[in-house]
Amino acid sequence: MTLEFSCHTVSQGCAEGEALFSADPILFYHTDFTTGVFREPGHSLEGKNIAQKILIFPGGKGSSVVQADGMYKLDVAHLAPNGLIVSELDTVLVASAIIMEVPMVNEVEPGFYQEVRDGDRICLNATDGIITICR
Amino acid sequence: MELTPYQQEMFDGLHGRGKALAIQIQKAIGEGFKAKRMVPITRAHVALSAQEADTWFARKMRDAGAVCSIPPTVNPGYCLKVFEELGYVNNKSSALMRETHQVYRDLGANLTYSCTPYLFGNIPRYGETVAFSETSVTVYANSVLGARTNRESSASALCAAITGFVPEYGALLDENRLGTTLVQVNTPLKDEFDFALLGLNAKRIGRGVPVFSGIDPSQVTTEKLMALGAQLNVAGVVDLFHMVGVTPEAPTLERAFGGKEPERVVEITREHLDEQKAALMPGDVDRINFVMLGCPHYTYEQIRRAAQLLTRSPANVPVWILTSQAVLQLARENGLDAVLEHNGARLVPSTCVDEAACWGHLAGQYGATDSPKCAYYMQAFGVKLAVRDLETCLAWANQGGMVL
User: Fold this and answer.
1) A63 touches chain B (CB under 8 A)
2) Among the listed residues B102, B94, B105, the one whose alpha carbon sits nearest the alpha carbon of residue B71
3) Does B248 lie in the same domain as B126?
4) Considering the entire predicted model, what is its pTM?
5) Is the ipTM of this complex over 0.85?
6) Per the count of CB atoms within 10 A, which of B58, B59, B100, B346 is most buried?
Protein backbone atom coordinates (compact mmCIF):
# COMPACT_ATOMS: atom_id res chain seq x y z
CA MET A 1 0.00 0.00 0.00
CA THR A 2 1.26 3.45 -0.79
CA LEU A 3 -0.15 6.79 0.29
CA GLU A 4 0.73 10.08 -1.38
CA PHE A 5 0.68 13.55 0.13
CA SER A 6 1.46 16.90 -1.41
CA CYS A 7 3.88 19.36 0.16
CA HIS A 8 5.83 22.55 -0.57
CA THR A 9 9.45 22.45 -1.77
CA VAL A 10 12.03 24.11 0.45
CA SER A 11 15.27 22.35 -0.50
CA GLN A 12 15.17 20.31 -3.71
CA GLY A 13 16.16 16.67 -4.10
CA CYS A 14 14.82 13.14 -3.53
CA ALA A 15 15.41 10.92 -0.52
CA GLU A 16 14.25 7.69 1.04
CA GLY A 17 14.35 6.50 4.59
CA GLU A 18 12.53 5.48 7.74
CA ALA A 19 10.16 8.03 9.27
CA LEU A 20 11.22 9.42 12.65
CA PHE A 21 8.86 11.83 14.38
CA SER A 22 9.90 14.52 16.87
CA ALA A 23 7.38 16.47 18.94
CA ASP A 24 10.05 19.06 19.81
CA PRO A 25 12.04 21.55 17.69
CA ILE A 26 15.54 20.33 16.87
CA LEU A 27 19.03 21.75 17.30
CA PHE A 28 21.31 19.37 15.38
CA TYR A 29 24.25 20.32 17.57
CA HIS A 30 22.79 18.03 20.25
CA THR A 31 23.70 14.90 18.28
CA ASP A 32 26.55 12.51 18.98
CA PHE A 33 28.58 13.03 15.79
CA THR A 34 30.16 9.57 15.99
CA THR A 35 26.89 7.62 16.10
CA GLY A 36 24.02 9.91 15.01
CA VAL A 37 22.23 9.40 18.35
CA PHE A 38 20.34 12.49 19.55
CA ARG A 39 21.48 13.56 23.01
CA GLU A 40 19.44 16.51 24.29
CA PRO A 41 18.11 15.61 27.76
CA GLY A 42 14.31 15.59 27.95
CA HIS A 43 13.89 15.87 24.16
CA SER A 44 11.42 13.54 22.46
CA LEU A 45 14.29 12.20 20.29
CA GLU A 46 16.67 11.62 23.22
CA GLY A 47 18.53 8.34 22.63
CA LYS A 48 17.16 7.88 19.10
CA ASN A 49 19.37 7.67 16.01
CA ILE A 50 18.61 10.29 13.37
CA ALA A 51 21.14 9.09 10.76
CA GLN A 52 19.61 8.43 7.31
CA LYS A 53 16.10 8.98 8.69
CA ILE A 54 13.35 11.11 7.21
CA LEU A 55 12.86 13.46 10.15
CA ILE A 56 9.39 14.87 10.78
CA PHE A 57 9.59 17.76 13.26
CA PRO A 58 8.13 21.18 14.11
CA GLY A 59 11.22 23.21 13.09
CA GLY A 60 14.64 24.35 14.19
CA LYS A 61 15.75 26.13 17.34
CA GLY A 62 18.83 27.55 19.01
CA SER A 63 21.78 29.58 17.84
CA SER A 64 22.40 30.02 14.13
CA VAL A 65 26.05 29.04 14.39
CA VAL A 66 25.64 25.74 16.18
CA GLN A 67 22.64 24.64 14.08
CA ALA A 68 24.69 24.94 10.88
CA ASP A 69 27.75 23.42 12.52
CA GLY A 70 25.72 20.46 13.78
CA MET A 71 24.31 19.73 10.32
CA TYR A 72 27.75 20.07 8.77
CA LYS A 73 29.34 17.65 11.25
CA LEU A 74 26.58 15.08 10.64
CA ASP A 75 27.03 15.48 6.88
CA VAL A 76 30.80 14.99 7.02
CA ALA A 77 30.32 11.85 9.16
CA HIS A 78 27.62 10.52 6.78
CA LEU A 79 25.17 10.56 9.68
CA ALA A 80 22.84 13.31 8.45
CA PRO A 81 19.12 12.64 8.12
CA ASN A 82 18.19 11.83 4.49
CA GLY A 83 15.29 14.27 4.41
CA LEU A 84 13.49 16.88 6.52
CA ILE A 85 9.72 17.44 6.84
CA VAL A 86 8.96 20.52 8.96
CA SER A 87 6.00 22.62 10.04
CA GLU A 88 7.67 25.97 10.71
CA LEU A 89 10.45 27.41 8.55
CA ASP A 90 13.33 29.42 9.89
CA THR A 91 16.12 30.90 7.78
CA VAL A 92 18.93 29.09 9.58
CA LEU A 93 17.45 25.65 9.01
CA VAL A 94 16.45 26.43 5.42
CA ALA A 95 19.86 27.85 4.49
CA SER A 96 21.64 24.90 6.11
CA ALA A 97 19.46 22.33 4.28
CA ILE A 98 20.00 24.03 0.91
CA ILE A 99 23.76 24.39 1.36
CA MET A 100 24.16 20.79 2.62
CA GLU A 101 21.81 19.61 -0.16
CA VAL A 102 19.40 17.84 2.21
CA PRO A 103 15.88 17.61 0.69
CA MET A 104 13.39 19.55 2.81
CA VAL A 105 9.65 20.32 2.58
CA ASN A 106 6.91 22.02 4.56
CA GLU A 107 3.14 22.59 4.26
CA VAL A 108 2.34 18.89 4.08
CA GLU A 109 -1.32 17.85 3.64
CA PRO A 110 -2.69 17.49 7.19
CA GLY A 111 -3.70 13.86 6.58
CA PHE A 112 -0.01 12.92 6.49
CA TYR A 113 0.44 13.62 10.18
CA GLN A 114 -2.50 11.36 11.09
CA GLU A 115 -1.20 8.55 8.90
CA VAL A 116 2.57 8.48 9.43
CA ARG A 117 4.16 6.22 12.07
CA ASP A 118 7.79 5.91 13.21
CA GLY A 119 9.50 3.29 11.05
CA ASP A 120 7.29 3.82 7.96
CA ARG A 121 9.26 3.75 4.72
CA ILE A 122 9.08 7.27 3.24
CA CYS A 123 9.94 8.46 -0.26
CA LEU A 124 10.44 12.21 -0.20
CA ASN A 125 10.41 13.89 -3.60
CA ALA A 126 11.12 17.43 -2.46
CA THR A 127 11.65 18.68 -5.99
CA ASP A 128 8.08 17.85 -7.10
CA GLY A 129 6.55 18.27 -3.64
CA ILE A 130 5.35 14.65 -3.11
CA ILE A 131 5.71 12.49 0.00
CA THR A 132 4.93 8.78 -0.35
CA ILE A 133 4.42 6.41 2.59
CA CYS A 134 5.19 2.83 1.51
CA ARG A 135 3.93 -0.03 3.68
CA MET B 1 10.41 34.57 -7.16
CA GLU B 2 11.15 37.10 -9.88
CA LEU B 3 14.67 38.40 -10.32
CA THR B 4 15.58 41.80 -11.76
CA PRO B 5 17.77 41.76 -14.90
CA TYR B 6 20.89 42.44 -12.80
CA GLN B 7 19.98 39.69 -10.30
CA GLN B 8 19.36 37.31 -13.21
CA GLU B 9 22.80 38.16 -14.63
CA MET B 10 24.33 37.25 -11.28
CA PHE B 11 22.28 34.04 -11.23
CA ASP B 12 23.53 33.15 -14.74
CA GLY B 13 27.15 33.68 -13.73
CA LEU B 14 27.85 36.86 -15.67
CA HIS B 15 29.30 38.42 -12.51
CA GLY B 16 31.44 35.46 -11.49
CA ARG B 17 30.94 32.01 -9.99
CA GLY B 18 30.94 33.33 -6.40
CA LYS B 19 28.04 35.71 -6.90
CA ALA B 20 26.18 33.05 -8.92
CA LEU B 21 26.49 30.49 -6.11
CA ALA B 22 25.37 33.05 -3.52
CA ILE B 23 22.26 34.19 -5.37
CA GLN B 24 21.31 30.61 -6.32
CA ILE B 25 21.26 29.73 -2.61
CA GLN B 26 19.29 32.91 -1.84
CA LYS B 27 16.75 32.19 -4.57
CA ALA B 28 16.13 28.74 -3.08
CA ILE B 29 15.72 30.27 0.40
CA GLY B 30 13.39 32.95 -0.98
CA GLU B 31 11.25 30.38 -2.75
CA GLY B 32 11.10 28.26 0.40
CA PHE B 33 9.59 31.29 2.14
CA LYS B 34 7.48 32.27 -0.90
CA ALA B 35 9.24 35.62 -1.32
CA LYS B 36 8.17 37.50 -4.43
CA ARG B 37 11.40 39.41 -5.03
CA MET B 38 14.83 40.29 -3.71
CA VAL B 39 15.48 43.71 -2.21
CA PRO B 40 18.77 45.60 -1.67
CA ILE B 41 20.50 45.64 1.71
CA THR B 42 22.74 48.38 3.05
CA ARG B 43 24.49 46.40 5.81
CA ALA B 44 25.38 42.85 6.78
CA HIS B 45 26.74 41.11 9.86
CA VAL B 46 28.10 37.58 9.52
CA ALA B 47 28.20 35.25 12.52
CA LEU B 48 31.73 34.08 11.79
CA SER B 49 32.49 31.42 14.36
CA ALA B 50 35.79 29.80 13.40
CA GLN B 51 33.90 26.54 13.61
CA GLU B 52 34.16 24.01 10.83
CA ALA B 53 30.87 24.56 9.01
CA ASP B 54 31.24 28.31 8.91
CA THR B 55 34.81 28.34 7.65
CA TRP B 56 34.02 25.56 5.15
CA PHE B 57 31.25 27.65 3.60
CA ALA B 58 33.23 30.92 3.63
CA ARG B 59 36.18 29.13 2.03
CA LYS B 60 33.90 27.65 -0.64
CA MET B 61 32.63 31.14 -1.52
CA ARG B 62 36.11 32.68 -1.46
CA ASP B 63 37.48 29.92 -3.69
CA ALA B 64 34.61 30.60 -6.11
CA GLY B 65 35.97 34.13 -6.37
CA ALA B 66 33.29 35.87 -4.27
CA VAL B 67 33.98 39.32 -2.85
CA CYS B 68 31.40 41.07 -0.67
CA SER B 69 29.62 43.96 -2.34
CA ILE B 70 28.45 45.04 1.14
CA PRO B 71 31.46 44.55 3.47
CA PRO B 72 29.99 42.78 6.52
CA THR B 73 31.12 43.09 10.12
CA VAL B 74 31.81 39.74 11.78
CA ASN B 75 31.23 37.88 15.05
CA PRO B 76 34.11 36.98 17.37
CA GLY B 77 36.18 33.84 17.05
CA TYR B 78 39.02 34.17 19.54
CA CYS B 79 41.94 36.53 19.89
CA LEU B 80 45.03 34.63 18.68
CA LYS B 81 47.47 37.05 20.26
CA VAL B 82 46.00 36.82 23.77
CA PHE B 83 45.55 33.05 23.82
CA GLU B 84 48.90 32.23 22.25
CA GLU B 85 50.61 34.41 24.85
CA LEU B 86 48.69 32.61 27.58
CA GLY B 87 49.73 29.28 26.06
CA TYR B 88 46.12 28.06 25.82
CA VAL B 89 46.40 27.37 22.09
CA ASN B 90 49.26 26.14 19.93
CA ASN B 91 49.98 26.56 16.24
CA LYS B 92 48.17 23.36 15.36
CA SER B 93 44.96 24.10 17.27
CA SER B 94 44.86 27.71 16.10
CA ALA B 95 45.15 26.82 12.40
CA LEU B 96 41.39 27.05 11.90
CA MET B 97 41.21 30.53 13.48
CA ARG B 98 44.10 31.69 11.31
CA GLU B 99 42.46 30.34 8.19
CA THR B 100 39.10 31.89 9.13
CA HIS B 101 40.80 35.27 9.52
CA GLN B 102 42.42 35.00 6.07
CA VAL B 103 39.28 33.72 4.31
CA TYR B 104 37.09 36.54 5.65
CA ARG B 105 39.78 39.06 4.78
CA ASP B 106 39.83 37.75 1.23
CA LEU B 107 36.04 38.05 1.11
CA GLY B 108 36.36 41.73 2.01
CA ALA B 109 34.79 41.64 5.49
CA ASN B 110 35.41 44.25 8.20
CA LEU B 111 37.04 42.14 10.89
CA THR B 112 35.34 43.71 13.91
CA TYR B 113 35.11 40.34 15.73
CA SER B 114 32.27 41.47 17.98
CA CYS B 115 28.71 40.34 18.73
CA THR B 116 27.67 43.96 19.42
CA PRO B 117 28.05 45.55 15.94
CA TYR B 118 24.94 47.65 16.67
CA LEU B 119 27.03 49.59 19.24
CA PHE B 120 30.11 50.08 17.10
CA GLY B 121 30.97 49.43 13.49
CA ASN B 122 27.60 48.61 11.93
CA ILE B 123 24.69 50.68 13.21
CA PRO B 124 21.54 50.67 11.08
CA ARG B 125 18.95 53.40 11.27
CA TYR B 126 15.23 52.90 11.81
CA GLY B 127 13.61 51.12 8.86
CA GLU B 128 16.87 50.15 7.13
CA THR B 129 16.85 46.72 5.44
CA VAL B 130 19.89 44.68 6.50
CA ALA B 131 21.08 41.06 6.75
CA PHE B 132 22.24 40.44 10.31
CA SER B 133 23.06 36.96 11.60
CA GLU B 134 23.86 36.04 15.24
CA THR B 135 20.60 35.69 17.14
CA SER B 136 21.31 38.40 19.73
CA VAL B 137 22.29 40.85 16.96
CA THR B 138 19.23 40.09 14.84
CA VAL B 139 16.82 40.64 17.71
CA TYR B 140 18.50 43.86 18.86
CA ALA B 141 18.64 45.41 15.37
CA ASN B 142 15.01 44.50 14.67
CA SER B 143 13.50 45.35 18.03
CA VAL B 144 15.54 48.15 19.56
CA LEU B 145 16.76 49.96 16.44
CA GLY B 146 13.75 49.20 14.24
CA ALA B 147 15.95 48.00 11.37
CA ARG B 148 14.58 45.12 9.30
CA THR B 149 16.34 41.78 9.15
CA ASN B 150 15.43 38.14 9.18
CA ARG B 151 17.18 35.77 11.53
CA GLU B 152 19.91 35.03 9.01
CA SER B 153 22.36 32.19 9.38
CA SER B 154 26.03 32.94 9.02
CA ALA B 155 25.88 31.46 5.51
CA SER B 156 22.76 33.29 4.34
CA ALA B 157 24.09 36.62 5.70
CA LEU B 158 27.36 36.02 3.83
CA CYS B 159 25.39 35.34 0.61
CA ALA B 160 23.55 38.63 1.17
CA ALA B 161 26.82 40.49 1.70
CA ILE B 162 28.16 38.99 -1.54
CA THR B 163 25.11 39.82 -3.71
CA GLY B 164 23.90 42.94 -1.89
CA PHE B 165 20.32 41.63 -1.83
CA VAL B 166 18.00 39.54 0.36
CA PRO B 167 14.77 37.71 -0.45
CA GLU B 168 11.87 39.74 0.89
CA TYR B 169 9.85 37.81 3.51
CA GLY B 170 9.30 37.56 7.26
CA ALA B 171 10.44 40.51 9.37
CA LEU B 172 11.10 42.61 6.24
CA LEU B 173 7.35 42.98 5.69
CA ASP B 174 5.12 45.40 7.65
CA GLU B 175 2.44 42.82 8.40
CA ASN B 176 4.88 40.46 10.12
CA ARG B 177 6.24 43.12 12.45
CA LEU B 178 3.08 43.66 14.46
CA GLY B 179 2.85 42.21 17.94
CA THR B 180 1.06 38.88 18.39
CA THR B 181 1.46 38.14 22.10
CA LEU B 182 0.89 40.54 24.97
CA VAL B 183 3.38 39.84 27.75
CA GLN B 184 2.17 41.54 30.91
CA VAL B 185 5.16 41.88 33.25
CA ASN B 186 3.70 42.14 36.74
CA THR B 187 6.90 42.58 38.70
CA PRO B 188 9.46 45.40 38.76
CA LEU B 189 12.68 44.47 36.93
CA LYS B 190 15.67 45.88 38.76
CA ASP B 191 18.82 44.94 36.87
CA GLU B 192 20.15 43.28 33.72
CA PHE B 193 19.90 39.90 35.40
CA ASP B 194 16.15 40.36 35.87
CA PHE B 195 15.84 41.12 32.14
CA ALA B 196 17.84 37.97 31.41
CA LEU B 197 15.45 35.96 33.61
CA LEU B 198 12.51 37.49 31.75
CA GLY B 199 14.11 36.37 28.47
CA LEU B 200 14.46 32.82 29.79
CA ASN B 201 10.65 32.68 29.92
CA ALA B 202 10.59 32.48 26.10
CA LYS B 203 8.91 29.06 26.18
CA ARG B 204 6.06 30.41 28.27
CA ILE B 205 5.81 33.41 25.93
CA GLY B 206 5.72 31.14 22.88
CA ARG B 207 6.31 31.83 19.19
CA GLY B 208 5.42 35.09 17.50
CA VAL B 209 6.18 38.73 18.23
CA PRO B 210 5.95 39.46 21.98
CA VAL B 211 4.95 42.92 23.20
CA PHE B 212 6.25 43.58 26.71
CA SER B 213 4.01 45.78 28.79
CA GLY B 214 4.31 46.89 32.42
CA ILE B 215 8.03 47.71 32.29
CA ASP B 216 8.95 51.23 33.45
CA PRO B 217 10.65 52.83 30.39
CA SER B 218 12.80 55.11 32.59
CA GLN B 219 14.53 52.01 34.02
CA VAL B 220 15.37 50.41 30.67
CA THR B 221 18.99 50.60 29.45
CA THR B 222 20.84 49.41 26.35
CA GLU B 223 22.45 46.67 28.42
CA LYS B 224 19.09 45.43 29.75
CA LEU B 225 17.69 45.23 26.22
CA MET B 226 20.78 43.33 25.11
CA ALA B 227 20.30 40.83 27.95
CA LEU B 228 16.59 40.35 27.19
CA GLY B 229 17.17 39.77 23.47
CA ALA B 230 20.07 37.37 23.97
CA GLN B 231 18.30 35.21 26.54
CA LEU B 232 14.98 35.11 24.66
CA ASN B 233 16.97 33.25 22.01
CA VAL B 234 18.55 30.83 24.43
CA ALA B 235 15.14 29.61 25.59
CA GLY B 236 13.28 30.13 22.31
CA VAL B 237 13.27 31.72 18.86
CA VAL B 238 12.42 35.43 18.93
CA ASP B 239 13.69 37.63 16.13
CA LEU B 240 11.56 40.65 17.03
CA PHE B 241 9.93 41.99 20.19
CA HIS B 242 8.38 45.28 21.19
CA MET B 243 8.38 47.07 24.54
CA VAL B 244 5.73 49.68 25.10
CA GLY B 245 7.20 53.16 25.44
CA VAL B 246 10.72 51.89 24.75
CA THR B 247 11.16 50.35 21.29
CA PRO B 248 10.43 52.42 18.17
CA GLU B 249 7.55 50.36 16.79
CA ALA B 250 5.69 50.39 20.12
CA PRO B 251 5.03 54.00 21.18
CA THR B 252 1.70 52.67 22.49
CA LEU B 253 0.14 49.25 23.03
CA GLU B 254 -2.33 49.88 20.19
CA ARG B 255 0.43 50.74 17.73
CA ALA B 256 2.45 47.68 18.71
CA PHE B 257 -0.50 45.46 17.77
CA GLY B 258 -1.51 47.57 14.78
CA GLY B 259 -4.90 48.21 16.37
CA LYS B 260 -5.68 44.45 16.54
CA GLU B 261 -6.32 42.32 19.58
CA PRO B 262 -3.37 40.24 20.86
CA GLU B 263 -3.59 36.59 19.80
CA ARG B 264 -2.44 35.54 23.26
CA VAL B 265 -1.88 37.14 26.64
CA VAL B 266 0.87 35.87 28.95
CA GLU B 267 1.48 37.07 32.49
CA ILE B 268 4.98 37.07 33.99
CA THR B 269 5.33 37.32 37.75
CA ARG B 270 8.27 37.30 40.15
CA GLU B 271 7.63 33.56 40.67
CA HIS B 272 8.30 32.93 36.97
CA LEU B 273 11.61 34.78 37.23
CA ASP B 274 12.56 32.93 40.43
CA GLU B 275 11.77 29.59 38.77
CA GLN B 276 14.29 30.35 36.02
CA LYS B 277 16.82 31.62 38.55
CA ALA B 278 16.62 28.41 40.58
CA ALA B 279 17.41 26.36 37.48
CA LEU B 280 20.61 28.36 36.84
CA MET B 281 22.51 26.87 39.78
CA PRO B 282 24.15 23.45 39.42
CA GLY B 283 23.08 21.47 42.51
CA ASP B 284 26.53 20.37 43.66
CA VAL B 285 28.51 23.58 43.30
CA ASP B 286 30.17 25.01 46.42
CA ARG B 287 33.25 26.56 44.84
CA ILE B 288 33.98 28.28 41.55
CA ASN B 289 37.37 28.54 39.87
CA PHE B 290 36.73 31.51 37.57
CA VAL B 291 34.20 34.12 36.45
CA MET B 292 33.26 34.63 32.77
CA LEU B 293 31.63 37.93 31.80
CA GLY B 294 30.80 39.51 28.45
CA CYS B 295 28.25 37.32 26.66
CA PRO B 296 27.13 39.35 24.73
CA HIS B 297 30.33 41.45 24.68
CA TYR B 298 30.39 43.86 27.61
CA THR B 299 29.74 47.55 26.95
CA TYR B 300 31.98 50.26 28.36
CA GLU B 301 29.37 50.96 31.05
CA GLN B 302 29.35 47.31 32.16
CA ILE B 303 33.15 47.25 32.34
CA ARG B 304 33.15 50.45 34.38
CA ARG B 305 30.71 48.92 36.84
CA ALA B 306 32.76 45.71 37.12
CA ALA B 307 35.88 47.83 37.77
CA GLN B 308 34.08 49.74 40.54
CA LEU B 309 33.01 46.52 42.27
CA LEU B 310 36.45 44.96 41.91
CA THR B 311 38.18 48.04 43.31
CA ARG B 312 36.13 47.64 46.50
CA SER B 313 36.62 43.87 46.68
CA PRO B 314 39.29 42.43 44.37
CA ALA B 315 38.92 39.02 42.78
CA ASN B 316 40.82 36.04 44.14
CA VAL B 317 39.97 33.76 41.24
CA PRO B 318 40.49 34.76 37.56
CA VAL B 319 37.79 37.02 36.08
CA TRP B 320 37.53 37.11 32.28
CA ILE B 321 35.70 40.01 30.63
CA LEU B 322 35.02 39.68 26.91
CA THR B 323 34.44 42.80 24.84
CA SER B 324 34.97 44.40 21.44
CA GLN B 325 38.23 45.90 20.18
CA ALA B 326 36.55 49.33 20.22
CA VAL B 327 35.52 49.14 23.88
CA LEU B 328 38.87 47.64 24.88
CA GLN B 329 40.63 50.61 23.28
CA LEU B 330 38.39 53.04 25.16
CA ALA B 331 39.01 51.18 28.44
CA ARG B 332 42.76 51.45 27.82
CA GLU B 333 42.59 55.17 27.09
CA ASN B 334 40.78 55.67 30.38
CA GLY B 335 43.04 53.44 32.45
CA LEU B 336 40.26 50.97 33.21
CA ASP B 337 42.18 47.95 31.93
CA ALA B 338 44.97 48.64 34.46
CA VAL B 339 42.43 48.93 37.29
CA LEU B 340 40.87 45.61 36.26
CA GLU B 341 44.23 43.88 35.91
CA HIS B 342 45.31 45.12 39.35
CA ASN B 343 42.14 43.67 40.88
CA GLY B 344 42.21 40.26 39.24
CA ALA B 345 40.23 40.73 36.04
CA ARG B 346 41.39 40.51 32.43
CA LEU B 347 39.81 42.23 29.43
CA VAL B 348 39.86 40.05 26.31
CA PRO B 349 38.91 41.41 22.88
CA SER B 350 37.47 39.64 19.82
CA THR B 351 36.61 36.42 21.65
CA CYS B 352 33.44 34.37 22.10
CA VAL B 353 32.65 32.07 25.05
CA ASP B 354 31.71 29.41 22.51
CA GLU B 355 35.29 28.64 21.47
CA ALA B 356 36.43 25.28 22.76
CA ALA B 357 39.81 25.92 21.12
CA CYS B 358 40.75 28.64 23.63
CA TRP B 359 38.53 27.76 26.63
CA GLY B 360 38.92 23.98 26.48
CA HIS B 361 41.26 24.07 29.48
CA LEU B 362 38.26 25.05 31.65
CA ALA B 363 36.46 21.74 30.92
CA GLY B 364 35.42 19.91 34.05
CA GLN B 365 35.68 23.06 36.17
CA TYR B 366 33.00 25.12 37.87
CA GLY B 367 32.74 28.82 37.09
CA ALA B 368 30.26 31.67 37.44
CA THR B 369 28.73 33.98 34.84
CA ASP B 370 25.99 36.60 34.63
CA SER B 371 24.82 35.21 31.28
CA PRO B 372 22.60 32.14 30.81
CA LYS B 373 23.69 32.12 27.16
CA CYS B 374 27.31 31.77 28.25
CA ALA B 375 26.42 28.80 30.48
CA TYR B 376 24.44 27.18 27.68
CA TYR B 377 27.36 27.41 25.24
CA MET B 378 30.17 26.41 27.57
CA GLN B 379 28.39 23.33 28.91
CA ALA B 380 28.72 21.92 25.39
CA PHE B 381 32.43 21.42 26.05
CA GLY B 382 32.16 20.40 29.67
CA VAL B 383 32.41 23.73 31.53
CA LYS B 384 29.84 24.02 34.33
CA LEU B 385 28.59 27.48 35.22
CA ALA B 386 26.49 28.92 38.02
CA VAL B 387 24.55 31.92 36.69
CA ARG B 388 23.93 34.90 38.97
CA ASP B 389 24.01 38.69 38.72
CA LEU B 390 27.34 40.52 38.35
CA GLU B 391 27.49 41.54 42.02
CA THR B 392 27.08 37.95 43.21
CA CYS B 393 29.64 36.56 40.71
CA LEU B 394 32.24 39.09 41.82
CA ALA B 395 31.45 38.57 45.52
CA TRP B 396 32.18 34.84 45.05
CA ALA B 397 35.38 35.75 43.20
CA ASN B 398 36.39 37.93 46.15
CA GLN B 399 35.79 35.06 48.59
CA GLY B 400 38.28 32.94 46.69
CA GLY B 401 35.50 31.19 44.82
CA MET B 402 33.46 30.13 47.86
CA VAL B 403 29.78 30.02 46.92
CA LEU B 404 27.79 31.16 49.94
Assistant:
1) yes
2) B105
3) no
4) 0.95
5) yes
6) B58
